[in-house]
Automatic annotation (TrEMBL):
SUPFAM superfamilies: Alkaline phosphatase-like. The keyword Ligase does not apply. GO terms for molecular function: transferase activity. It comes from Lachnospira eligens. Keywords: Membrane, Transferase, Transmembrane, Transmembrane helix. Residues 196-453 form the Sulfatase N-terminal domain. It comes from the Bacteria. The chain crosses the membrane at residues 18-40, 52-75, 82-100, 120-142, 154-172. This is Phosphoglycerol transferase and related proteins, alkaline phosphatase superfamily.
Length: 562
C-alpha cells in the first residue's frame, strides 16, 4: 500500500510540475495582467488605489490554480499532456486576443455596441482561437518532447514579458483626478426662504428628446420656463460638459484634460464669487467633474478622504467581467459587455460617517421621499445643483423612479421618472413658498445624438410667471448659461458675459469639443479626427440644421475662449 501511495504521489507531482508553466501563463495573463492593465489604463475612473485590487488578484489566481490543478489531477496521466496543451492554447489565445485582435469599441458608456459591424473581427478571432487551442494538443500527440518544451518556455517567456510590462505600468501610471475629497449628501434637499438657484442636470437629454418626450407632456408644469431650442452646449461628454457649464470656460484641446479642469475653475470664478457673497453652493455630482474647484467654496464636499472597495464581491465580478470582455473571443464578447460606471457603486469613502452622493436617480428620489421632500429655513441663499443619470444609457429606471432593469423600461419611461422627481420637487417649492423667489434650471450636460452638441435647456427665472412655456431661438451656448447662473444668483452679469436672455440680435461664433468616440459616428473615415482624443468643431447657423467644420489650426483652438 505504501508503495502504491508513493507511486500515486509521484504521478501527482509530475502532473503538477507539467502544468505549472501553463498555469503561470494563464494566471499572469487573465488573473493578473489583464485586470491590472485595464485598471491602470483607466486610473482616473477609479477612486481606490491599485493596492486595493491586489487581494482580488490573489483570490482569482488561487481559484484558477485550484480549478486547473484539480482537473489535472483527475485527468488520466496519458492525456495530461494534451490537457496541459489546451491550457496553454487558451492562455495564448487570450493573450493574442487582448493584445492584437480587439477592435476599437470606443468608450463603454452604457450604449449598446452594434456587434454586427464587427463580423470580420469575429471571424478572425474565432479562427485564431480554434487554431491556438486545437493545434498545440495535436502537435503534442506526435512531437511530445519538442512541443512540451515549446509550451514550457513559451509560457514562461510570455509571462515574464507581461510581468515586466505590468511593473512599468505601475511605476508610470499617474492619476490626474483628485480623489482626496468626497461629494457628500449633506443638506441635500435644504433650500433657503431668501432665494435659491436650483439646477437639474438631466444627463444626455438632447433637444430631440425634449421635443419628443418633455415639452408637450409637461406643458403645465413647465409653463413658467423658457425653452432654448437653438442651444449649442460646447463640450461632450460629461467630463467637458459639467466643468464648462460651471465655469464658462471651454476645453482648449492643445492642453491635457487635467490642465483644463484646473484652468477652467481658475478662470470661472462664479462658484467662489457665490460663496464669498454668502451663498451655500451645493454641487451634487461626481467628484471627478469638480477637480480643480476650491473645495472650501462648495458646502457639500469633505476633504482629506480616501476610498475603499465597499462591495468586494461585486467589484471582483466587475473587474473580471471587464477582463473577459477584452480577453475572450469576439463572438462571445456581447455576453461580457459592461458599463464603465458600474464600478462607482462598489467604491465608498473609508470614513463610514460620510454618505457619498452617487448618480443614481432612483436613490435620489427615494432620499427625497424619505426626507419628506425639501426643507426650508431662513439661512443662506443656495445654489443647488443635482446631476442625474437622466436620459443616459443604460435605461434601467421606470416612470415611477424605480430601478427595474433594462428589459422593463425605455428612454421614454426613464425620462418620465426623472421628471416625476423634478415636478414633485418644484411642487414642494411652491407649497413651501420658495418657488417664486427662486430660479430653476433644467438642463443637460450635453446632447445625445450627432456630436452631442444640442443639450436641452429650460430656465425659469425668479418672479417669472407665464400662461404657456416660452421658446427662445437665439444663438446661445453654455457660456451664456454660465452667465445666467451669475445673474440669477448675484443680480448682475458684467463679470460673466451675456446671459441666455441677452442674445437677441447678437451673433457669436459657436464651438463644440467632442472626442473621437463621439465624432466617429458622423465622420467614421476622418483620419484627422481618428488620431486625436478630442477635436474642436465650429458650428455655424441654426442648431437644428448646422454647418459644421473641423478646426485644425492650433491657434484657432486656443482662441475658442476669447
Amino acid at each position: 500500500m505504501d508503495k502504491e501511495d508513493g507511486i500515486f504521489m509521484k504521478i501527482m507531482k509530475q502532473k503538477i510540475k507539467l502544468l505549472c508553466p501553463q498555469l503561470i501563463f494563464l494566471i499572469v495573463t487573465f488573473c493578473i495582467f489583464m485586470p491590472s492593465s485595464l485598471f491602470l489604463g483607466n486610473l482616473d475612473e477609479f477612486a481606490v488605489e491599485f493596492t486595493a485590487l491586489i487581494p482580488l488578484l490573489i483570490a482569482a489566481s488561487l481559484i484558477t490554480a485550484a480549478v486547473v490543478i484539480l482537473i489535472g489531477l483527475i485527468v488520466p496521466k496519458k492525456i495530461c499532456n494534451i490537457y496541459a496543451a489546451v491550457i496553454f492554447g487558451g492562455a495564448l489565445a487570450a493573450y493574442v486576443q487582448g493584445n492584437f485582435l480587439n477592435p476599437d469599441f470606443g468608450v463603454l458608456n452604457g450604449r449598446q455596441i452594434q456587434w454586427s459591424q464587427f463580423r470580420v473581427n469575429a471571424i478572425i478571432s474565432t479562427v485564431v482561437w480554434i487554431v491556438l487551442i486545437v493545434v498545440p494538443p495535436v502537435i503534442i500527440c506526435f512531437k511530445k518532447n519538442i512541443m512540451t518544451n515549446i509550451i514550457k518556455w513559451g509560457s514562461l517567456f510570455l509571462s515574464s514579458i507581461q510581468v515586466v510590462t505590468l511593473v512599468v505600468l505601475i511605476v508610470s501610471s499617474k492619476r490626474s483626478v483628485d480623489y482626496s475629497y468626497v461629494v457628500t449628501k449633506n443638506d441635500e434637499f435644504a433650500l433657503s426662504s431668501q432665494g435659491n438657484v436650483v439646477v437639474f442636470i438631466v444627463d444626455t437629454l438632447d433637444n430631440d428628446d425634449a421635443q419628443n418626450y418633455v415639452i408637450d407632456r409637461y406643458s403645465e408644469e413647465l409653463k413658467d420656463f423658457t425653452y432654448f431650442d437653438n442651444m449649442i452646449g460646447g463640450g461632450a461628454p460629461t467630463a467637458l460638459g459639467v466643468p464648462l457649464m460651471l465655469t464658462g470656460y471651454q476645453y482648449d484641446t492643445t492642453q491635457s484634460l487635467a490642465d483644463y479642469r484646473k484652468k477652467a475653475y481658475e478662470e470661472g470664478t462664479l462658484i467662489q464669487d457665490m460663496s464669498d457673497n454668502g451663498y451655500d453652493v451645493k454641487l451634487y455630482t461626481s467628484s471627478e467633474y469638480l477637480n480643480g474647484v476650491n473645495q472650501e467654496a462648495v458646502a457639500n464636499t469633505a476633504g482629506g478622504q480616501k476610498y475603499r472597495i465597499s462591495d468586494k464581491v461585486q467589484f471582483f465580478k466587475n473587474i473580471y467581467k471587464m477582463s473577459a470582455f477584452y480577453a475572450f473571443p469576439q463572438i462571445i464578447k456581447q455576453y461580457f459587455w459592461f458599463y464603465g460606471d458600474d464600478f462607482a457603486a462598489c467604491q465608498a469613502p473609508e470614513n463610514n460617517n460620510i454618505i457619498q452622493y452617487e448618480l443614481d436617480d432612483s436613490q435620489l428620489y427615494a432620499d427625497f421621499k424619505n426626507n419628506g421632500g425639501i426643507t426650508v429655513d431662513a439661512g443662506n441663499k443656495t445654489f443647488t445643483l443635482y446631476h442625474m443619470v437622466g436620459a443616459h444609457v443604460p435605461y434601467e429606471m421606470n416612470e415611477q423612479c424605480v430601478d427595474v432593469g433594462e428589459t422593463e423600461t425605455s428612454l421614454d419611461k426613464q425620462i418620465q421618472g426623472v421628471f416625476r422627481y423634478i415636478n414633485e420637487y418644484m411642487q414642494q417649492m411652491k407649497d413651501k413658498g420658495v418657488y417664486d423667489n427662486s430660479t430653476v434650471i433644467i438642463t443637460a450636460d450635453h446632447g445625445g445624438y450627432g456630436l452631442y452638441e444640442r443639450p436641452a435647456v429650460f430656465v425659469k427665472l425668479a418672479d417669472t410667471h407665464n400662461d404657456v412655456m416660452q421658446v427662445n431661438s437665439d444663438s446661445v451656448t453654455f457660456k451664456n448659461l454660465y452667465a445666467t447662473y451669475g445673474k440669477a444668483a448675484l443680480g448682475q452679469n458684467s463679470n460673466y458675459g451675456n446671459t441666455l436672455f441677452d442674445m437677441a440680435g447678437v451673433s457669436q461664433s459657436r464651438y463644440h469639443v467632442a472626442p473621437w468616440d463621439v465624432s466617429k459616428g458622423m465622420y467614421p473615415a476622418d483620419e484627422y479626427l481618428k488620431n486625436r482624443d478630442y477635436s474642436v468643431f465650429r458650428i455655424d447657423g441654426d442648431a437644428v440644421n448646422p454647418q459644421i467644420s473641423v478646426i485644425k489650426d492650433e491657434q484657432q483652438m486656443k482662441d475658442i475662449n476669447n
